[in-house]
Design goal:
single chain, alpha/beta, FAD/NAD(P)-binding domain, 2 domains, 3-stranded antiparallel beta sheet, 7 helices, 7 strands
Length: 243
Amino acid sequence: MVVGAGHSATHAVLRLSELARRSPGTQVTWVPRRGSATNVFGGGLGDELPERAALGSRARKMIDEGLVNLVTGFRVAEFRQDGGSLTIVAEDGAAVTDVAHVFALTGFRPDTEMLREVRTDLDPAFDAVAGIASEIDPNIHSCGSVSATGARELAQPEHGFFIVGVKSYGRAPTFLAMTGYEQVRSVTAHIAGDHEAAARNELVLPDTGVCGGSGDFDDNAGSCCAAPAPALVQIGLRPVTVS
């Protein structure tokens, strides 16, 4: 059983489908909590990163061939030991039985233990570098709107220390390898003393055609590609008598 809807989960599903093909009787169940499979398969032809676009197409093929059972809208609530296997129960009571292994690929946060002895400035919400947190916030930015980040934004309070790559993004799901390459180019130029090159933006992002974030779990009305609409929140106040 694979839990998750991102690219890591898709990779795991594809590898496990190879096992199912070699060993008849092996069943792979994929349980994203999204209510629709649309985003699970990625951007397809709308994704200008061809290898990533191929992931979704290959996953869909494995499902069509019966090697993978896709159960959408599955929000895990409970694990039950059932003899030598597990039964996974969802919030709505649905269950997947006779599970031997569970692969939970539902996002992560970076391990910053190695940085405890140096001074760092990380955003408390995303565990990202504080200098770029507002630029990569998936609750605000749509696909393709994430700006390039360089030496100036990635610098830490510890003199001469920078955090680059996926660790600089913390829990934000909007990281691309080419973003990290641009970070390293800028930081390397800064260290070499070429501050003009360090400040220059050489990143050109394609129209990715896919989004990070969780989207709408229970219906298909929304899209993670758009900034959230304002919502009115009313807070009731109880009268207090002051004497």
